[in-house]
Amino acid sequence: MSELEQKEIQLNVLKSKVDNLLKNKHPASDKIQAYMETLQTQWSWLLQITKCINVHLKENAQYSQFFKEASEMNRKLQKEHDNIRKNYSCDKSTPLHNLLELLQGLERERERLTEQREMVQQLVLKSKSIVRLKPRNPDEKITGQNILVQALCDFRQDEKTIRKGDEGILKDNSERTTWQVTGPGGMDMQVPSVCLLVPPPNPLAVNLANKNSQYYEAILGVCNQLYINNKSMISWQYCLLDINRINSLTINMLSKMNPEEYSSIVKSLEMHFQEFKKHSQGSELFGADDYKQIESQYTGAQQHYSKLVVDLPTYATRGEGSEYSAAVSIKLLNQLNALRFKLDGAESSLVTFLYIPLGEDAPEECGRHISSTQVFQKDVQTLKAEFQSLRDSVQNELKDAKDTDKAKYLRGQLDIINQRLVQLENYTTTHLQRLHSLNSLLKDVLKAEDVVKVYEARLTEKETASLDPEEVQKYQKVLQSMRSDLEQKQDLLNLLLADLNKLQQYNEQMDQGRYRCIINLSQYGEHVNQLSDRWKRIQIQINNRLDDLDAYQPHLQRYLQSSSRLNGWIGETQRQIDSQQNVKTDDIAVYTQLLNQQKALNSDIKAKRELLETAQKDGETCMNDIKNYELELASYSAGLETLLNIPIRRTVLQSPSSTISEEVSSLNAHYLELLTRSSDYYKLLMASQKNMEELKIRNTRIELLEEELQQLRDAVKDHAANNASLQDALQKYQQELNTSQTHLLSLEEVKRTETLKCMATQESLDSSTNRLQELMDEVRRLKLQLDDMERKKKVVEERYTFLQEEHDETMRKKLKELEQASWAKMELEKTVSERTRELERLRRELEDEARRVKEAQTELAKTSSVIQTSEYQCSNLQQERDDLLKKMAAMEQEIMRLKKLEDELARIKLSLESELRLKSQMQEENERIKKDFTQWKTKCATHEEQIRQHTSERSGLESQFNSVRAEMERLRTQLKETEERYRLLLQNLERERAEMQVLRDSQQNELLSLQRKTDGATKYTQTDLTDSSSLVFDGVRKKVTAQQLYDCGVIDKVTFEQLMNGQRTVEDVSVDIRLNLKGTGAIAGLEGGPKGKMTFTEAKNQNLISDKSGNLLLEAQAATGYIIDPRANVRMTVEEACLNGLVDEADKKQLLIAEAACIGFRDPKTGKLLPVSQAMKKGIVNRETALRLLQAQEAAGGILDPILSVYLSKDTAMDRDLVDGDLYQALNAKPECYIDPDTGLPASYVTLKKQCKADLSTSLLLLPAPEKPMTVQGLRHEVNVSDLVDAKLLQPLDVDHLREGKITSQDIEHRLRAYLRGSTCIAGIYDEAKDSTLPVYQAMKEGLLRPGTTLELLETQAASGFMIDPIINEYYTVEEACKKGLVGVEFKDKLLAAERAVTGYKDPGTNKMISLFEAIERGLIEKGHGIRLLEAQIASGGIIDPQHSHRIDVDVAYQKGYFDEEMNQILKDDGDDTKGFFDPNTEDNLTYLQLKSRCIADKKTGLVLLPIYDKKKSQQKNSTRKRRVLIVDPESNKEMTVREAYEKKLIDYETFLELSQQECEWEETTITAPDGSTSTAIMDKQTGIQYDLKDLLVKGVIDQAVLDKYRSGNLTLTELADMITNKTKSLGKPLSSSVASSTFTSQVTLKSQIIKTETVSSNIKTVENISSQHDPSSTNSTKHVASMSIKLTPLVETIEEQNPVGAIFDTEKLEKISICDALNRGIIDSITAQRLMEAQACTGGVVNPENGRRISIQEATRLGVLDDDMANRIKPAQKAYIGFEDVKTKRKMSAAEAVKEKWLPYEAGQRFLEFQYLTGGLFDPEHGCRRSLEEAIQHGWLDVRAAQRLQDTRHHPKTLTCPKTKLRISYKEALEGCMTEENTGVRMLPAATVSSRGISSPYNLSNPGSASGSRSGSRRGSVDYSLSPSSSSRYSSFSYSRTSFSSRSLS
After folding, report:
1. Integer Rg of the chain from CA
2. What stretches of 1091-1230 adopt beta strand conformation (E)?
3. Among positive and negative, which fits the CA dihedral 1068, 1072, 1075, 1076?
4. Mean pLDDT of 687-715
5. Between the ranges 705-709, 752-756, 1601-1605, 1789-1793, where is the mean pLDDT highest?
6. What is the pTM of this model?
7. Pairing relationship of beta strands 1332-1334 and 1322-1327 according to DSSP bridges
8. How are beta strands 1271-1273 and 1278-1280 bridged, if at all?
9. If DSSP codes are grouped into helix, strand and coil, which group holds residue 1443?
């Protein structure tokens, strides 16, 4: 993978180069792009192949590891089995102490086997996940096998596609690389085999694992049997010892013993005998004879003991024997017993199993065993000495002994002890020798292992060869030295093998003796053999490496020589060519010499190609040698790693073969470069020589054209004179412009003069003294009107604020215009430079033309024949010259015009700057007026006349100013509108300034006069103090002080000091830092609409831009301050924009998040405002959103500080922790966070702003209106191509191809037909009986479908897009289908409702279009119904997006939020909750996908059709007759089966066959003989008896007419079976053949399903009726059965399910109604209704009375079968069917398990179990099948007692009230009292409001009649009942069918 990663880096570099070339519009862009796309396709395919190979390697590794472990486990088990058999077998000759040791060893072996159980079970589990590798072998034939394969990646062949995870069937594997596969949909494909995996299970792996498991169980059984044998043998030995001891007792010995002592001997015998009887059961060593023998010995010992005890008193009175003799004998016996006990202790101390593990400590442990054995040997010698002393004493005692019994006993004991001592001594000596041999072996093993490890480590150090011959020779010497050293150490290996053989000999000798100290030599043998193999592998590896290096070295030297020689020649030749190219000369002779040299050099280069080929061949040889050598080394290392099971550390291998490959490639490239360079240089020399010859000719022609050139120069001078005149005119125009400016300045001077005059007039007015008294009065009056003046002050301040904002807006527009002017200037400069270059090019062309003219003149002088032609050419050239001169003149004029425009722009800029300064002065003046406004409150009314006079004078000045301005407008037409607005603004400001000036002066004069009056000569002085907090600027959303701007670096220190000192005003500085305060603004809207501009919300609603693109642009506005209304030029907050309808309410939340980027995110914990980056870190916003909002701010002026509300640079923002390093780098990368509304492709915000145009009236940025969107035809309307890209159905590259015309919209429609138009839902019905295709509605009318099923299938068509006519393959809407009669009008409303899943649902609250899932969430449609529609959409191609009118994949729909996680899980789950569709063939509840899987494809149209199979064909092939025969024994009153009666010998075999045939289950099978021939047979599943129909035909049991009748369906299988059995009885010979006794192995396949049949019950028959049919000689059997009765009872546990009570039949109104309707009418009580509904829910679902289909509770509620109350009450019963989920194991538990685990109350659980048992068996939700009681007991669900309670239906509780008799009945009685509707199979329980027994209903008082709204008409089935004549016409279609009626329930 590391090489792939490096190649991927190279590919990315290449892609960036290609992108640059495409961006720069390279001439070969098309080819470059095509090559790059091909390369990317190949690269993606390579990556897929690599991933597939990785999967194969992993699976193959698991395969190899499994078989290795399984084989190793098999070998271990075999060795274990042999070891146990060999070491732990015993017989009667085995000593007791050995038996005890064997018992301990067996216990240890059993513990070890228990530990191995887990390993065996793990292998069994692993075997189920092992893939199959044999089918990958082309030699493996797969004919006749259905081998599944699974795709590891997507693969497409033509129009056939197999996707990752899809499964197919392998058809042909004859080619190793390509397989023929039948993929999804039944399409045959050729798929690369590397893309396919043969999934588990692997039969070989499973068989091997099962074999190991069986082997393990067998070994465990052997171990247990040996343990039993050993245990019984020990008991037998102890028993014999006690018997011998008692038999050896004499009267003399007994007299010397205490009563307790000899009574304990008898008790020990009794105890050991009882143990023997217990342990000998199941033992293989003891038979009946042995048992009798030991019992007789035990009895004899007891009799001997009893006799001694009886004679003991008599013997004691006689006093036989002397006291001395008795004392001596007792002493000797005690010594003898003591010696024997010591000997027993010594023998028991022997080690039975000696296990010394291999390792470094093994010799030390073996030494410890040697030491202990030597000590034991000394103890034996001591015992021997004691024995000799005791023997001498006994012999002396026995010399004069008269008691022969005692002498015989003592001598016998001495001989036994002597023999045991000799054997023990010999064993100890041999064991000691064996331990010494083992110690020597362990030491030699350590030495040999050290040697092997050293050499293996040295051999694994090298992983490749070298390119240096000296290093190769050096390593060869190392290998030779290793080989010689290894040969010298060969003796060590030989010694090791000798030690092993010697040890094995000692071990065999030890096993033959009496004592066995077992040493398991297998581990040492295996280790020695492994070391020997490793030793040999080292020798072989050294020899192989030496041979490989010997062959590699000459190849390497030859390659180095050839490559170095070629490389040197190439370098020398390149230098020679360089030296020739450096020669610069004009001499033709030199050129000729160089040409000859280069020609010879070319020949030499071509001749050297053979040398290049030789070097390449040598290089390939070396590479092959190196690769083979590396493979050999890697194989050795891998084998060593596998053998030792330890990882070997490997370094990254840099193979020399790659170096050689690079060198050879480099040589080839250099040679080709040299050849090309030499050829090119040779061609250059030839061309240069030819050009020099032509140059001589042209020099003469140039001289002739010089005269013409002089004339052209004169013309150029004339042109220069014209340019001078134009320059003079331009200067004159400039002078006029300066004059206009001077005039303007004079007007300004007049304006200032008039202002001075006004001030003088004001001073004269101030000097007036006649107003003094009035002013005093007005002062007093002003005090009273102070409050009123304060109000007026606020009004003036508000007006001032408005004027200031208007001024700011004006300045913003001015700056925008100035910015546009700057852009225009740059464009003009660029145009000037281009025109200058064009002029220069024209001049060069003119010179070339002049040169051509001279050439033409020269030709004219030389050749008189072409004079006229030359003159014509000359005139043409002169014309072209004139044209060029005109072009030059035009260009110069253009240059002058551009210069003029540039000057005009500069002048405008100066004017704007002066106006800005004037504005700032006026602002300062207004500030002063504001400060003194409290002092200047009066005198406004007295100066109105003076103000009007000044206004008139001002208007005169303005008129003059306007005339000057109008004259200037002619010179700058492009800025006319801007200047006019500025003039009007200036006029207003001047007027306001004048008014404020007059007001200030008058008020100041009055105050001064008042102060002189009151204070005398008090002077008023005012000092202005500037506070930094008063210097406030307007930020984006709030005010910011100068100090804050200085702190964040927006203004520098100088500016801040100037502000503080009053040298500069806030307005002046605001102009300089406008970018930081307000930014450049966001994109305001879109061009278009009635007023030329529209908001993004309007553009979205008109589908001009996508929703996503519009929302992102609105987010950018909110993130930069305000939402903008481009028409009204108004900025609003998000809240205000929502209130004014500028944005949709649905987008408010998203925009508030974006607005928080401007004002700050609120920390939920601290409440502080956070910038974007900190909000991202706290998880408030994600990184993508944060990056998008910050990019919009950066494009608008910088990062917006939410605290200061100003824009800052990125560096400053990073310093203030507004962005972190990650976001800083991401912003620098300019990510494409937005979507271009025009192309639908990602773009950055700066890119979008560059596309904008500034509105002239508002200066707002507007995006150009997008072009007409590219669309394709969707399900209902056109679909934008960008929507398909957003839905991941198209790539952005496809949109580019569509725009460029490489593909058409028809191509896209064809490619995405499944998403845009087509539908793969079930289109129609295939009638097998008529072999015809029908529409769904037509099938219902012909009786093939029920109305409910028809509606479901039609709803899925409507919800999937279209109604389908399967006959003509046409698609229609619901309205069109109704008009064409494709569906009936009764379904129209429901189908229109389902069609809204395609067209969309309208939200009642907002009238917005919402999807199907949103309609489910809002409760517009029922959830279960909606899930069915969604499931149908998924199965027909994908979820339908109603807004965009196309399908999307489920994963994409989930990612886009079209449904939530819960709905996603529901749609993925195949549980019963989603099985909302009905299979009319099998009556199964299925999901839509499952139902589709049972469909077929129409061969003509390819549409999906639901087949309706011919029921006659399916019923005639198979039948089952089920009866159960029970035999009752009157003595015990127990029931038993026929087989139990036969096994107890109560009936004979013929009776058994007779009764077995009566409870038979017949089915038709096909038997295949070994020769391949097949035949048809019928078989009884109960007894295994089968009849070959062909054989019966030959033997005449049946004739051809009967067989033909059966084949045609006129004779059922049951009838045929009865006919055959009857005839075989009458013939008196068996014609059947049992499956078990057949002469050939048969393969049995069922022909068809078992169909439902009615249970037949027969009367009780006495045995006399049966026995009378048999031979009267069978008296024994007659005697047995004479007291029994045989009865045939219905078989309760049938395979088929029988329906529960599904409806109520009202016998009074003769109609079928649902149970809930019956409850509402008062016909049944609530308890009975609940029990009946519980029985339905717990046995498969609620029964729909209309069609008999089983549905879920949710669906039943939707259809009105249930109400909500009843649905809630029966939900626990539904869980009894779908299963109770175990919270720990997540397993589905059955109802029986739930009761057992206390998940379900006992009463409810018992009730559910009774319902399930009576309808076919207990339900297993884990496997979805029924279980019989026997299976339930086996699974541990029930115990035998509980099963008996369920089976005893007579005692089932009576929990129901019969709706007809009003008596208490059980559910079984209710089932028996039901009637069955023929068409639907619904069981109906008869009911009436008045009891048939004359008892009034206890619960019909409130509802005596039918409930309103009952569904009588729709719920009536076709039942056959005895009707009155009056109603016969109304119910003429009824037919009556009854099963079995209980006399009690229907009486």
Report:
1. 57
2. 1093-1094, 1123-1125, 1130-1132, 1161-1162, 1169-1170, 1199-1201, 1206-1208
3. negative
4. 74
5. 1789-1793
6. 0.32
7. antiparallel
8. antiparallel
9. coil
